[in-house]
Amino acid sequence: MQYDKNRFKIQALPHPFILLWVLFPAVMFNELIFGQRLPKVTLIEKESDKPPEERSYVPCPHCETLNDRRLWATKGNAFGYGHWFGLVCPSCHQIIPCLWNIFSLAILAITFPLWYFPVRFFRHRWIEKEKERLAKTLERPLLQATSIMDSLSIGVVSGISMWVIWVILEVARNGGEWDLKMMLESLPFSLVAGFGIACFMRWVEKDKEEIEKERLANARERPLIRAIRAKSIKSTIKPMRWFLRGTFYFGGGMWVVFGVWDVLKEREWDLRTMFDMLPVCLFLGFAWGCFVYVVANLANLLEGRKT
Predict the structure, then answer these.
(1) Which residues are within 8 A (CB) of 289 and not within 5 positions of it... i.e. 6 or more apart?
(2) Contact 64/4 with Cβ under 8 angstroms?
(3) pLDDT digits (tens, 9 = 90+) for 21-72
(4) Which residue from 61, 64, 53, 111 is spatially nearest to 86, judged by alpha carbons?
(5) 42: enclosing H helix or E strand
(6) How far apart are CA 87 and CA 17, in angstroms?
């Protein structure tokens, strides 16, 4: 299939991002657990003022159709979920070729007897379900770039924040000694954990705002009173949500990650230490939620002054 290089920027091997997807070990969790797949070729329109997420296209080599990348995205995630068998073309319903992480391939090769027959049984059913999902997606407006990038941005902030806290706690545990090897090993682990926390948070809370809007729209009140109440509820719930998100999602997730890390490093698992760490992690999570809320409000204030 030929591509217009004057119109599109071609993202394929050996592009740095594609190489990172193929070689980075943590990507195997995204592929095997979340079902996030990356097409072998992505075309990004050059002459456009839209964000990259809204001008990215996935070509189908079977019918040569250029498909909007957002067809397979979900709210809060540009890669979507559940695409273990690949990306189904909405035009010809063939599977668009996707990349595999080398560590995913190694695990699939080792566990071949476990998944071969279930895959043969469920593959056709999954394709039929994917056709139905794509048909529904084409009937409504595609996701905007802001909603697609939310989980990625929250995940990066969560991962880096967790890594900084992690390093500080490990230094305190080691009596003030810095361990460069631990810092380098824990960075990708923290980023993956932060991304997982962000995805879980978006999945749990994705319908809350829509339910609240629908309830207010059906309330038997005059429009002005309804608008005032909606604004007051939103201004009250927003900071509370960030504080609760920080406490339970970030703090609780950090506590679980610390426990998993100790097991992976073959340290002696101490139940008392884990319980002692729980209030510390929850407090740090609350502080993180407060910090993110303040930073987000300052960013909105500066953006409002510019406009």
Answers:
(1) 242, 243, 244, 245, 246, 247, 250
(2) no
(3) 888 776 787 788 878 888 899 888 887 777 667 788 899 988 888 888 888 8
(4) 61
(5) strand 42-45
(6) 19
Average pLDDT, the chain: 72
How many domains, the chain? 2
- Give me the DSSP letters along 195-242: HHHHHHHHHHHTTHHHHHHHHHHTSSS-HHHHHHHHHHHHHHHHHHHH
pLDDT of residue 237: 41
User: Against a cut of 0.70, is the pTM above it?
Assistant: no
In this prediction, residue 305 carries a pLDDT of: 43
- Residue 200's contacts (CB-CB under 8 Å, 6 or more residues apart) are 249, 253
Cα angle value 192/37/145 (rounded, 5°):
75
**Residue linked to tokens 């900071």:** 239
| Residue closest to 286 by CA, chosen among 278, 298, 274 | 278
Confidence of residue 15 (pLDDT cuts 50, 70, 90): confident
DSSP code at position 77: B
pLDDT digits (tens, 9 = 90+) for 88-118: 888 888 999 899 989 889 999 999 888 889 8
- Number of residues that this document lists for the chain: 307
102-140 in b/e burial notation, b at 16+ Cβ within 10 A? ebbeeebeeeeeeeeeeeeeeeeebeeebeebbeebeee
Which of 57, 95, 61 shows the shortest CA–CA distance to 73? 57
Distance CA 267, CA 174 (A): 13
Show Cβ contacts of residue 182 under 8 Å, excluding neighbours closer than 6 positions.
Answer: 167, 170
Same domain, 127 and 237: no
Residue 14 domain flag: yes
Burial of 183 (0-12, 13-18, 19+ CB in 10 A): middle
Final residue before a domain boundary, out of 110, 138, 166: 138
Residues 35 and 166 in one domain: no
